[in-house]
Design a protein that fits this description.
Elements lengths: L1 E6 L6 H10 L4 E3 H11 L1 H11 L12 H8 L3 H24 L5 E5 L14 E6 L2 H12 L3 H9 L4 H6 L3 E4 L6 H17 L1
Parallel strand pairs: 1-3, 1-4, 2-3, 4-5
Length: 197
């Protein structure tokens, strides 16, 4: 079975593309959702996060205090690296275990930070989702109910979109002008053929 990465900058529309692949019967591992789940369920991870960021990192109900963490890590590159060093290994292990259980022609790991986390080398192909920056900013502002500067700060923490797309084997343009489904279908057919050959 082929292991495929799906990546793109914040607001590029990875989740929309992932949903299309799911309708084709392709299993998708959402690394961001998995990381959030692990950060609330793995006792050793919870302890490490509290040690690094203080008890305020979690609510009294034991839920991750996302705003508190985001305010710290998106304004301090060192603290972001600390958080990534805590969460990435556990998320990578979860993804690998999940992929071993799949039986489709290929499966997808959807992750914003595939290249940044150094996990792209373990995958057979990488699909990138690209969108104009102005559109990405607007999408995130609406989705997260946040300000433009906050979005720009988060974009600044990721590899530049142009570089990331050059590292990908396939690129899907999600600019609200090109249709997504035909782009996904073309890649799907290539991957199914590649799996059979």
């Amino acid at each position: 079975m082929l292991k495929i990465g799906l990546t793109g900058g914040i607001g590029s529309g990875k989740s929309v593309v992932a949903a299309i692949f799911k309708t084709l019967g392709i299993p998708v591992f959402d690394a961001d959702s998995a990381a959030k789940k692990i950060m609330e369920e793995d006792a050793s991870l919870i302890e490490a996060i509290k040690t690094a960021f203080g008890n305020a990192a979690y609510t009294t109900e034991g839920k991750l205090n996302r705003k508190y963490i985001a305010d710290i890590v998106f304004n301090d590159s060192y603290q972001l690296e600390v958080l990534n060093n805590i969460t990435h290994p556990a998320t990578i292990r979860a993804a690998e275990a999940w992929m071993q259980q799949q039986h489709a022609p290929y499966c997808i790991k959807e992750a914003a930070l595939l290249f940044e986390a150094g996990t792209a080398g373990n995958l057979d192909y990488i699909i990138g989702v690209s969108a104009p920056e102005a559109l990405r900013i607007n999408r995130v502002m609406q989705r997260d109910n946040t300000g433009r500067q906050d979005v720009l700060t988060r974009i600044g923490k990721q590899i530049k979109q142009e570089i990331k797309m050059r590292l990908c084997d396939f690129v899907i343009l999600n600019n609200e002008q090109q249709l997504l489904i035909p782009q996904v279908m073309a890649i799907h057919e290539k991957l199914v053929v590649s799996r059979k050959s």
